[in-house]
Amino acid sequence: MILCKNILSITISLLFSCFVFSQTDSVKNKSTLILPLITKSIETDWSLGLATVVTFKMSLKDSIARTSNIEVIGLYSLKDQFVAVINGNQYFKNEQFILNEQISYSSFPDKFWGLGNNTKATAEEPYTFQQYFLFAHLMKNLGNHFFVGGIIEHQNVLAVNYIAGGLFDQQNITGRNGYHTLGLGISFTNDTRNHAFTPSRGRFAQLFLTGNNNSWGSSFNFFSLVADYRQYIPIANKSVLALQAYSLNGFGDEIPLRNLGSLGGSNSMRGYYSGRYRDKNLFVVQSEYRLPIYKRIGAVAFGSIGNVGNNFAEITNSEIKYSYGGGIRFALNKKEKLNLRIDYGLGKGNNHGLYFQIGEAF
């Protein structure tokens, strides 16, 4: 779901000297961390910035609702990329309602290899754009961990600059001259995870259906169907096996570039540049073994397979991509299980990358 979700995941920081400010209010059950950022990823190279992470309980007497959070992040990279993001998850009393939101601005030099699952590394072309993004998702608890929700998603992409006569023009890429979308949707969720940041047991199953239409303000008419299934299995010695299957399917003849399925990034198919492969449909399966080592320190090993395609046949009949790797974890907030993670991922060919970020990949 768009650039911001990938950028939020880019990230963080000075491992042992990152705490400029850390405060815990046990009476209000609130914790605040302010962190200087020195980050690195495939997409951004080195970046500098600042993050504030607030965790809290919406109701002090509520023993059912999980911990809520709000993150405010600002980053500027050596590639002249600037990203400002507000991201949050609020669990209301007894989790009768859950609100997820994201507001961001991005000014971002990026790369494009064309559409499809067989694009060549030598086809790489640079382009730049600016983007405003708004996402809000409110869910109502129906009982037994089932939720139904409403979604609003607004995206405004402008100041797009690309090589005239290159891949954007040759493939007639929708939205290459800028656009805005307004998506309205519905969601169905089953969530039995024991924790929001780093689950150790339970499952998460979610289905999104979002429509964009000229009649309510979008530049293009298209639909997106997203299915996300995660399972967390406790193993011996407090280790956890985390599994995820994720798919995005686009319907319509005019799906703009940044609404297409995008393979790669810090949360999925680590080791591939985010957007190394793009098309209407995306499918990824990944697993991660998480092992505590000593006090705040942990380690992981992960692997994933995935592909993109104009249709399901293209995904299954073409060569499947893979990635694998490992990393370490450092608990920034041990009580709330908020981790700094450092991962190194490798994919097919010359695809590889190092990631610093807050929170698990899934």
Structure description:
The chain has 362 residues and is mainly beta. It contains three helices and 19 strands. The protein has a single domain (2-358), classed as membrane protein fhac: a member of the omp85/tpsb transporter family (Porin). The longest helix has 7 residues, at 2-8.
Secondary structure layout plus pairing:
Blueprint (H helix, E strand, L loop, with lengths): L1 H7 L12 E5 L4 E12 L3 E12 L11 E10 L4 E10 L5 E16 L12 E19 L2 E16 L5 H4 L8 E13 L10 E11 L9 E13 L5 E12 L9 E3 L13 E3 L1 E14 L2 E13 L2 H6 L3 E13 L4 E10 L4 E7 L4
Antiparallel strand pairs: 1-2, 2-3, 3-4, 4-5, 5-6, 6-7, 7-8, 8-9, 9-10, 10-11, 11-12, 12-15, 13-14, 15-16, 16-17, 17-18, 18-19
Which key terms come to mind for this protein?
Porin, 19 strands, 3 helices, two-stranded antiparallel sheet, disordered N terminus
